[in-house]
Amino acid sequence: KNLIWQHLEGLKSPYRIKRGQIHTWNIWPGRHEAGIIEDFGIGNSQAQWFIRSIPAIKDIFAEIWHTRELLSSMDGIGIFRPWHLNLQIQQRDITNNTNPWKTTGANWHVDQSPVQKPNRVCVQGIINLLPADETTGGLMVIPSSHNRFHELLSIWTKSKNNSKIPVYHEILQEGYGLLIHAQPGDLLLWDSRTVHCNTP
User: What InterPro entries does its record include (predicted)?
Assistant: First the structure.
């Protein structure tokens, strides 16, 4: 956690983020509505490399792929501001049941192209640094949706490696979403063909 805070505190203007100083969290990097920071060097940060280099994590991925020669992508982090502590919330936000800090969630997507890569080629993972449940939000998946990956061909833009799943798609109509409860240190893994999103 400390390395993530160091990275956030080191961002240049207009960011003035300081841990423990909630009033500095109004200007926040990334896509707050999705609960993700994918830019600002976060994928290649010390925090990310520290987590990727934990021997037990490397052992798990080596077992999955039957090799110790592993390739890791440089992706983002899932991070939510505690929206219920937003000191800047306006009366209109309370009236409209909105909050500019709150992750809206339901950005259902897959991070693999069914056109170019129809088989399993990637296993994604999250290390939880804090507890995740209904009170905090976290990762949601559509269980077994990787078995229906071919059904996404009709919505795919061939040039893209990932795609948002429209809310009307049949995959989202059956057994809608499972929030993964997790504790600090838990490693969550899923086939990249699995439909998933963050939820507040």
Answer: Phytyl_CoA_dOase-like (IPR008775)
Residues in contact with 12: Cβ distance below 8 Å, sequence separation at least 6, in sequence order: none
Q: Please, are residues 130 and 182 in contact by the beta-carbon 8 Å criterion? A: no
CB neighbour class for 154 (10 Å; exposed up to 12, middle 13-18, buried from 19): exposed
Task: Give yes or no for a contact between 163 and 110, defined as CB atoms under 8 angstroms apart.
Answer: yes
Q: What is the pTM of this model?
A: 0.82
pLDDT at res. 9 = 96
* 71 contacts 31 by C-beta, under 8 angstroms: no
Identify the CA nearest to 180 among candidates 129, 145, 144, 128: 128
- Degrees, nearest 5: CA angle 124-128-132: 110
Q: How many Å apart are CA 195 and CA 197, to the nearest integer? A: 7
User: Residue 65: which H helix or E strand, with range?
Assistant: helix 55-65
- Pairing verdict, β 187-191 and 163-164: unpaired
Q: How confident is the model at residue 115 (pLDDT cuts 50, 70, 90)?
A: confident
- DSSP H helical ranges for the chain: 2-9, 46-52, 55-65, 91-95
Place of tokens 């500095």: 24
CA dist 178 and 184 (Å) reads 19
- State the amino acid at position 139 in one-letter form: L
Q: How many Å apart are CA 162 and CA 115, to the nearest integer? A: 11
